[in-house]
UniProtKB/TrEMBL annotation:
Residues 10-252 form the ABC transporter domain. GO terms for cellular component: membrane. It holds the Pfam family ABC_tran. The keyword rRNA processing does not apply. Keywords: ATP-binding, Nucleotide-binding, Phosphate transport, Transport. NCBIfam families: 3a0107s01c2. SUPFAM superfamilies: P-loop containing nucleoside triphosphate hydrolases. This is Phosphate ABC transporter ATP-binding protein. GO terms for molecular function: ATP binding; ATP hydrolysis activity; phosphate transmembrane transporter activity. Coiled coil: none annotated. The keyword ATP-binding applies.
Length: 257
């Protein structure tokens, strides 16, 4: 990795995660920066979701989960005593595998976060945040005339873009996406991928995918996970064309998955 005096947006060092007695993540260290989309790839059950969730403390919601090691956001320990977890999850937003809009209107889905975080100075300001977020998520034109319809009435692909708009609305620094297209058809998937490419640079983006073509299309850096370990990471093109590790080679050539 190039020497640099800028701190990475997020940095993980020596991270272990346990579910009860069972260790799901072993000694993972990785940096996430603003300029690149980072893909986490690897076979099912290797710990991609578990590790992703350590980055905004979603594992806190799993009673048996225990996280060791150090994870920082702008150099600050996110597991430190001073870290406000609600604030952290606004700064490090998450988009899940299955679109999960609130059973509320499209408008409310996006307005909710800015309202509880006090980001809008009034109704007009909130309207603007909602519009801007929906535009950024590539959904505005499709929903601008039906903002009071339920978010759950949208198609799956639209719901996922609504969830991205909801994450964007609180002005996050990092967006974590856990297989965001796995429940979507190819056209909706292509839209999300386009969106990821557009969002790149505005947010640090981490995407978990088991679709290697997708990783190749949307990411500039890739980390390969296997059996709870991060086996290797590097520029996406290098990981796909010239992996250093045999296990990575086996995976990308489809020997297991
Ligand atoms: N809430 C949980 N409780 C216990 N074990 C879990 C839990 N979530 C995941 N695991 C286990 O941790 C390992 C990694 O799972 P996961 O992070 O979901 O992998 P991936 O996202 O790569 O498919 C698996 O063995 C899985 O069974
Ligand atoms: Mg997973």
């Amino acid at each position: 990795m190039a020497e640099s005096d800028t701190i990475p947006k997020m940095s993980a060092r020596g991270v272990n995660v346990f579910y009860g007695e069972k260790q799901a993540i072993q000694d993972v260290s990785i940096d996430v920066d603003l300029d690149n989309v980072t893909a986490f790839i690897g076979p099912s059950g290797c710990g991609k979701s578990t590790f992703l969730r350590t980055l905004n403390r979603m594992n806190d919601t799993v009673a048996s989960a225990r996280v060791e090691g150090k994870i920082t956001l702008d150099g600050e320990d996110i597991y430190g005593a001073n870290m406000d977890v609600v604030q952290l999850r606004a700064r490090v937003g998450m988009v899940f595998q299955k679109p999960n809009p609130f059973p509320k209107t499209i408008y409310e889905n996006v307005a909710y976060g800015p309202r509880i975080h006090g980001l809008a100075s009034g109704k007009a300001d909130l309207d603007q945040i909602v519009e801007k977020s929906l535009r950024r998520a590539g959904l505005w034109d499709e929903v601008k005339d039906r903002l009071n319809d339920s978010g759950t009435a949208l198609s799956g692909g639209q719901q996922q873009r609504l969830c991205i708009a909801r994450a964007i609305a609180v002005d996050p620094e990092v967006i974590l996406m856990d297989e965001p297209c796995s429940a979507l058809d190819p056209i909706a998937t292509a839209k999300i991928e386009e969106l990821i490419l557009e969002l790149r640079g505005n947010y640090a983006i981490v995407i978990v995918t088991h679709n290697m073509q997708q990783a190749a299309r949307v990411s500039q850096r890739t980390a390969f996970f296997h059996l709870g370990r991060m086996v290797e990471q590097g520029p996406t093109t290098e990981i796909f064309t010239n992996p250093r590790e045999e296990r990575t080679k086996d995976y990308i050539t489809g020997r297991y998955g």
